[in-house]
Amino acid sequence: MLETKVEAFLNRHSFKLENLKMVVGVSGGPDSLALLHYLKGQKEVRNLSIVVAHVDHMFRGRESFEDALFVKHYCEQYTIPFEMVRINVPELIKQTGNSSQIAAREARYEFYAKIMEKYNYPYLALGHHGDDQMETMLMRMTRGSSGKARAGIPFTRAFHKGIIFRPFLNLTKAEIEEYCKEQGLTPRLDPSNMKSTYSRNRFRKEVLPFLKLENRHVHEHFQRFSEELQSDETFLQELTVQQMNTVMTKREKNKITIDVKRFSIVPIPLQRRGIQLILKYLYNEKPGSLSAIHIDQVLSLMQNSHPSGKLDLPHGLHIIRSYLNMSFQFDSVNDQTYHFEVHEPGTIELPCGGRIKMSFIDREFTETNLVFALFHVDKIKMPFIIRTRKIGDRMTLKGMSGTRKLKDIFIDRKVSIRDRDTWPVITDAEGTILWLPGLKKSSLEGIDYKAKQYILLTYDK
């Protein structure tokens, strides 16, 4: 049954196993062991060349080392070349600050690339299955991923000097486990796969069972949806590249300039992808703090009736609009000013460090700490503006009449001149200063018992 389904899946993708030279990533768990066993069965029929690569991440001491010995023993039984490495991933986590999953994945794929290079094998086979696909797509959609990221795990993709392929994406976890039983396989089990501390495991244990009760073929629908998203996104990316070639007026290593007027007539779906292409080009490595809200801010700056403005993105990337030109650049900006518009709930990462978050809450909120500010929804003109100070800035103070200069507030609170220049100032759309986070709140802030909903701003430095 498994062989038939995999064959149909490979045929649907016009993927031929014949004469392939491949590295197979095998952890010893049900998925990868079943994949190895399946490919071993096809070895003679299809003239396959196989080498197994195993990584001991050293999370579980002797237990994880025994996983390696288990895989090695299987390979010895069938005279399959076996390569392994022990990598101290817990130590890598301390050094890099990456999560356990990211650190382990990077170490694992780096080893796979080395083995592909060593044997000159252009293919890497991995045991991801339909449940993995569902978990990945649900997690990414929940996090707000966009573009190709929403499509989840591709059947094939370029890797190192070759190609990764995943022949089990049309199978469920249960089908793979049943195959292991039928073939007399006794895979190793990793207890961390059951811990609810990992978000993937929570989707696996709580969300997927519900979806499968609704439709036992749901994994096939997710796979089809994934493939449609990938093909649609590929087409849209091609159109985006064509359009961006018509709107870019300058392209350098650290700077791209576009014509705002030409860009404005590009269809909106291609505009968003165009900005993403620019950011991908300029950032060697996309910052984790970069999100969809930054794309919205760039579009807002471009559509603003004011002919000039500036945004500051993570890691020192500056977006500068001057009449009909907009530049994305890392150089030529020496001051520390910034200007953000917040139209909807989200988090703004400040160039000087810290973040400001906007959300909607009901009247039951009672926090009075200065790093929080509450505003009656109906009394504030949106969007909020988060900016640095300007000459002559004044604000009303909660509980006092009249206004005070921000300069005097900074002096009273003994804020250094350097910090004054980068301190966030929160205003409404008309420029009324609402809040000086951590220092002073305006007379518009606070509980209003007629309000049914509040805007909550929080400042985390």
From TrEMBL:
Q: According to its UniProt record, which reaction does this protein catalyse? A: cytidine(34) in tRNA(Ile2) + L-lysine + ATP = lysidine(34) in tRNA(Ile2) + AMP + diphosphate + H(+)
- Could you say which enzyme class this protein belongs to? ligase
UniProt-annotated binding residues for ATP: S27, G28, G29, P30, D31, S32
GO terms (molecular function) for this protein are: tRNA(Ile)-lysidine synthase activity
- Keyword ATP-binding belongs to the record: yes
What Pfam families would the database entry show? Answer: ATP_bind_3 (PF01171), TilS (PF09179), TilS_C (PF11734)
Keyword Disulfide bond appears in the UniProt entry: no
- For this UniProt record, give its keywords in alphabetical order, as a comma-separated list: ATP-binding, Cytoplasm, Ligase, Nucleotide-binding, tRNA processing
Q: Where in the cell is it found?
A: Cytoplasm
Q: Which SMART domains match?
A: TilS_C
Q: What is its main location?
A: cytoplasm
Residues crossing the lipid bilayer are none
State the EC number(s). Answer: 6.3.4.19
Q: Which Gene3D superfamilies is this protein grouped with? A: 3.30.465.60, HUPs
Give every Lysidine-tRNA(Ile) synthetase C-terminal domain span. Answer: 384-457
The record's annotation in CDD domains points to: TilS_N
Q: What is known of its domains?
A: The N-terminal region contains the highly conserved SGGXDS motif, predicted to be a P-loop motif involved in ATP binding.
PANTHER family, sorted? TRNA(ILE)-LYSIDINE SYNTHASE-RELATED
Give the family this protein belongs to, as stated in its UniProt record: Belongs to the tRNA(Ile)-lysidine synthase family.
Described by its record, this protein's role is as follows: Ligates lysine onto the cytidine present at position 34 of the AUA codon-specific tRNA(Ile) that contains the anticodon CAU, in an ATP-dependent manner. Cytidine is converted to lysidine, thus changing the amino acid specificity of the tRNA from methionine to isoleucine.
Q: Which NCBIfam families match?
A: lysidine_TilS_C, lysidine_TilS_N
Name of the featured protein: tRNA(Ile)-lysidine synthase
Q: Give the organism, scientific name.
A: Neobacillus ginsengisoli
